[in-house]
Amino acid sequence: VFGESIAIWHSKITKKKKEAIIQGLLSGKIQLIAGARSALFLPFSHLGLIIVDEEHDDSYKSDQKPRLNVKDLSIYMAKQHKIQLILGSATPSISSFHKIPYIRVAKSFFQTSKTITFYDSQTVLSIDIRNKIKRTLEEKKQVIIFLPTRANFKYQVCSSCGKSVECPYCSVSMSLHKNALALKCHYCGYAQQIPQLCPSCKTGIIQNFRIGTAQVEEELKILFPSKNIVRFDRDSITTNTKLKEVLNDFNNEKIDILVGTQMLSKGHDYHNVTLAVVLGIDSVLNMNSYKSREKALSLLIQIAGRSGRKGFGEVIVQTKNKEFFEHYLVHSDYEDFLKDELPFREDLYPPFYKMAKIVFAHTNGIKAQEEMNKYVNILKDLEKIEMVGF
Ligand SMILES: [Zn+2]
Ligand SMILES: [Zn+2]
After folding, report:
1. Pick from 74, 3, 63: nearest CA to 32
2. Which of 52, 172, 267, 329 is the most exposed, fewest CB within 10 Å of its CB?
3. What spacing in Å lies between the alpha carbon of 113 and ligand 2's midpoint?
4. Which ligand lies nearest to the CA atom of residue 190 in the structure?
5. How far, in Å, CA of 261 to CA of 153, rounded?
6. Residue range 3-99 in CATH 3.90.1150.10
7. Element (H, E) at 278
8. CA of 54 to the centre of ligand 1 (A)
9. Domain covering 115-154+208-332: architecture
10. What is the distance in A from the centroid of ligand 1 to the CA of 224?
11. Ligand closest to CA 165
12. Could you say which ligand is closest to the alpha carbon of residue 204?
């Protein structure tokens, strides 16, 4: 549409190309840049519009040097220089929703046009799901399996109702303490024994669950020994060549099942897939963070939404929290979720309060501890700051 006046900017383009783009910008030949985070720092002379697409994505915030949040910086620049700004997302972050006047574009939010089935199960792959996969493969169709994490992730929830044990002070899930006998809140440090009975339903017991791509791949290989099953995450897909190779094989139907993280949902086309299975979403819903509900729901919507666009027939979600997910996916929508979630944040968490994380690191743990104590002593005298953790 824009022809010569557009350029693509990211860290992997050659130095020569970069110079050409900068020249093009300075001379006015290039008028539109589509780029990664660093594109914001190009020498624009009269920038009129910034679009931050998929604004809910955490990768706008860099955890490495230089530490910055390109989304926040875009908002700042837009304000300072009176530039128009659009934050785009099907699942806008709760902070943006709260802070920025928004216009809801028609149909921009997720709409259920496909079948979503919820299954509850004790095991990683329930019998219902195994049967669905089996039938799909028998019909010579392909299956995609999504997991929220590649690591072999351990989390503690009730075996009956799927709820986790929450910190009484912080209202976030507690996670297993080092000694594995207690649960600890990693915000305030409160610890307690693992309760005999689940505090929510009073009938189930709190159990350890594990989930990860490698483990699921292994289980599938045992269940379907004659099928070609391939893992798709940052551990197994290390280069761009490898990525293209696997996607090619999958689209040429040399692979029957792809098991992967959210990496799977980012902009690829899968034309012969009729079944998408989402496993382990409960581990996100119960992670020890105030953002857990927002993360879990937006992740599920992103996966399910993308699946639909590519024409997957059916999406199966394995969860013990059907009520929560079904409510916002089927009976209401993400906007309702954001409105419901804000009151929970109001007393303690962003966007109402600002949070900062200070990390002390040293090869010698005692040195780090000493240094941290020094800062704790200084900071605790400041009335406007509440400190947790340490
Ligand atoms: Zn329970
Ligand atoms: Zn706490």
Report:
1. 3
2. 267
3. 40
4. 2
5. 13
6. no
7. strand 273-278
8. 35
9. 3-Layer(aba) Sandwich (3.40)
10. 33
11. 1
12. 1
Q: Which residues pair with 207 in a beta bridge?
A: 157
CA angle (8, 13, 14) in 5-degree steps: 130
What's the pLDDT score for residue 109? Answer: 46
Identify the pLDDT of residue 105: 55
Average pLDDT, the chain: 87
| Domain edges within the chain | 3-99, 115-154+208-332, 356-390
Distance 164 CA to ligand 1 centre (A): 8
What distance in angstroms lies between residue 331's CA and the mean position of ligand 1's atoms?
A: 24
Categorize the per-residue pLDDT at 41 as very low, low, confident or very high, splitting at 50, 70 and 90. very high
Whole-number Å distance, alpha carbon 204 to ligand 1 midpoint, is 5
- Kindly state the average pLDDT of the residues 305-326: 77
CA distance 334 to 128: 28
Residues 6+ apart with CB under 8 A from 101: none
Ligand nearest to the CA of 290: 2
Using the mean position of ligand 1's atoms as its centre, give its distance from the Cα of residue 299 in Å: 24
Nearest-angstrom CA–CA distance, 319 and 333:
19
- Do 3-99 and 115-154+208-332 agree at the fold level? yes
Helix boundaries (H) for 62-208: 70-80, 94-99, 127-138
Q: What's the token pair of residue 245? A: 């190779």
Tell me how many helices (H) and strands (E) the chain has. 11, 15
